[in-house]
Amino acid sequence: MTGGYAVAEALRQIHPDVMAVYPITPQTPIIETYAKMKADGLVETEMVQVESEHSAMSATIGASAAGVRAVTASSSQGILYMAETLPVVSGLGLPIVMCVSSRALSAPLNIHGEHGDVMAVRDMGWVEMFAENAQDAYDQTIIALRLAEKVGAPVMPIMDGFHTSHTTERVEVLEDEIVRTFVGKRQTEESLLNFKDPITIGTLALQNTYFEFKMNQEKLMQKTKSAFKTICSEFAKISGRKHGFFEEYAMDDAESVIVMMGATAGTAKEAIDKLRAKGKKVGLLKINLYRPFPYKEVGSALAHIRKIAVLDRAISFGAYPPLYQDVMSSLHFSASQKHDIASYIYGLGGRDTMQSHIEKVFKDLEEGEIDNKIKYLQ
Amino acid sequence: MNKELSKKLSSGHATCAGCGIPAIVRTVLGATDEDVIVSNATGCLEVTTTIYPSTSWKVPYIHSVFGNAAATAAGIDAAQKAISKKNGKKFKPAKIVAFGGDGGTYDIGLQALSGALERGHDFLYVCYDNGGYMNTGGQRSGATPYGANTETVPAGIESFGKTQQRKDLMEIVKAHGIKYLAQANAAYLPDLKRKAQKALNTPGPSFLLVLQPCTQVWKFPTSQYVAVGKLATETNFWPLYEIEDGKYTINNVVKNPKPIEEFLKTQGRFKHLFAEKNKDVVVEIQKVVNENMEKLVKKAQIS
Amino acid sequence: MEKGGIIKHDLNKSPKTGNWRYVRPEVDASKCIGCTTCVLPCPDASIEMRRRSKEEKKISPKLAQEKEIADIDYEYCKGCGVCAQVCPMKAIVMKK
């Protein structure tokens, strides 16, 4: 099944009570598949076809605050349009899951896969996790829902638009019952439907209290890291598939390592296998949990790696790209402190990234072609 | 504190002395004994009743951002529909009332309102209309009257204030074909209560547009919101009427309406219109008030 | 601090808006006919109809009538004067 179908399948098993959606390529396979499931009576979710993404998240907020399980899905322009409400969701501590099929931002208009959209909203208090393939997308949707409701924070399981969302791959689906017991039911006392002890949600906090609210929110965000780890190990028990902060691929004796996220990691793995066959000591660190970023853990994982290339599928104008900045910060925690780090940007606007691009990166690293200039894998 | 009146919205909120909003809220919420959930846009009502750590709301209340009171209400409605499907008759859905100012309804929230109306969600949307962005200090909105002096379209040597007519929100909402909507006025609370009862008992979406004279920015003494509100209706600037299944009913046909000056002269925001050079602006206001009234009377006759 | 800033109504956390006043509405019991016109428009729901007890009658000879007249809760009344303006009998007067 495609990544989009896999996410819809995971949502069918999770069975949210409300799903407010607005269509945008490449997210549409998720909501179309889900709508068909509803039309065929496989789910009874209350689907609300809203008139904009701003209203999609607003309706999801209303439903979630009313105590039910509410999810939505979006991409690119939609995420920026609803961006006003994203910090509201995390600020109110609502366990909303938004499935993202990430795509480039206008202008110029581009409907293809890229991480520019989720990078634009990466610091608004949403947990962000990246999938490499349709299997990841399926697994992470389930993990995301469990994490959101356990910690009370919103989560974005992200897959690359088209490269994952529209590409058919083999996906192992769990039994409905197993998934249902894994995610359980959403329980909350504090809801708009509690008339005996009515809540006011969405308060006005002024200079004397706002600061503390934000500090508490950060404490909660840090707590999601450990919760994510526990849930991943529980998920491994029911699925046999290990998820974690990141995946270390052929890194034990590696001298040159690429750090990256998302679909193109698959291409990197194939390139690494080929180079390894030729005796090259190369490896990959694929980050799964991007926010909250596991700085210490990434630092120690890269401690013994001499040459590092960070591949970002997003561009930050006037700055180093986002993942590069995070990896640079995490290397502060590396014991050895002996690293040469290069920054590459790839796949903007859905541009295909070939194994040859990956091989070129490793060649640069091997030949010491490393400096602080950003390089582009066009 | 009046126990009955403060059952759902307690005293101890920070609206300006002499503000008409709390009376609107208490009258509307007082029009039902069923459980009610309030979805509120950012605005005067929200920032004066939910200042952390205190909230004046004694019913479930949600505020998220400025332009999505109706979309949030739609989400609550969807949640209740989902629960009803699961629990059947055992679950009694509460009434959902969305409150927004004219800024939050005519302008920034219009799209969310239109979507929620068109999708037929079960909720009542109440717009307290004070003709401008008062919480931010009296800036111009789509609801600001022609010729009014506001912070962003001030009257000056060259300008006489707002040069466009008000957006006709009632017609825009009516165009969605909803079953019941009405125009009311904070100075006529019994009339508002009757309309709120009708609206709350209407399945699907319903809408109330309620004039809320604002002492702070319209610039009249804190004791005058009822007096000024009455003049708005007595001069036909703000007629009271209902539209039920497309049928117009005018609630109090003002036999001989007072000249518009009676309404304008009570407010500082129109003071500049009484200068010689702005005489024709007042004439224009009167002309438009008469035309609008004629249109309304015609609609009431044919329906 | 409550997670997500979710709070519940607690009267003693709300400000006593009575201290906003610089003028104060006073009900003249001899004029008040108990018509409740002032009750609904009061922005702070601070007016209730109440029969005066015997002691109170002793305090102010004016409270002669044996009926429910307007009683203002000065803890929350902001002194806006709406009640005085709408009162048909001019029984409420704003005093310093």
Explain the overall architecture.
The complex is a heterotrimer of chains A (378), B (303) and C (96). Chain A has 378 residues and is an alpha/beta fold. Chain A has 13 helices and 14 strands. Chain A folds into two domains: 3-239, Rossmann fold; 246-377, Rossmann fold. Helices cover 40% and strands 17% of the residues of chain A. Chain B is α/β, with parallel strands linked by helices and 303 residues long. Chain B has a single domain (3-299), classed as Thiamin diphosphate (ThDP)-binding fold, Pyr/PP domains (Rossmann fold, 3-Layer(aba) Sandwich). Chain B contains eleven helices and eight strands. Chain B has an eight-stranded mixed β-sheet, sandwiched between helices. Chain C is built from two helices and four strands. Chain C has helices spanning 54-59, 82-86, and strands spanning 24-27, 47-51, 68-72, 92-95. In chain C, strands 1-4 form a two-stranded antiparallel sheet. Chain C is elongated. The model of chain C has no long low-confidence stretch (mean pLDDT 89). The A-B interface holds A 17-18, 20, 44-46, 48-52, 54-55, 58-68, 70, 84-85, 88, 92, 191-195, 198-206, 209 and B 35, 37, 39-40, 46-47, 50-53, 55, 57-65, 67-68, 71-83, 85-86, 94, 111-112, 114-115, 118-119.
Shape of chain C: elongated
DSSP strand (E) fraction of chain C?
15-25%
CATH topology of chain C: Alpha-Beta Plaits
Order of helices and strands of chain C: EEHEHE
Summarize the amount of helix of chain C as a percent range.
10-25%
CATH topology value of the largest domain in chain A = Rossmann fold
List the domain count of chain C as a whole number.
1
- Number of self-contained structural domains of chain A: 2
Low-confidence stretches of chain A: none
Query: What's the pLDDT, averaged over the residues of chain A?
Result: 97
